[in-house]
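Model it.
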Amino acid sequence: MTRLTAPALKGSNEFYVDTGLDLFAGDRLGLLPTSYSPSTVDDVFVTSYDNTTGKVVATSTLNYYHWG
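Modeled.
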């Protein structure tokens, strides 16, 4: 489990999480709702993860805005 370190924008396929994680291409991540609607979940697969910056590039774009 990790947290976003910056808002993840709707329509983007990049977002930032904690550094130093064991994330690899092909890993599946779920971004949970940060609104009042429980259906605003994004489910993505990792294309790349930068261990020093925490930048994740996903295979698909996000359908919702996420923060925190």
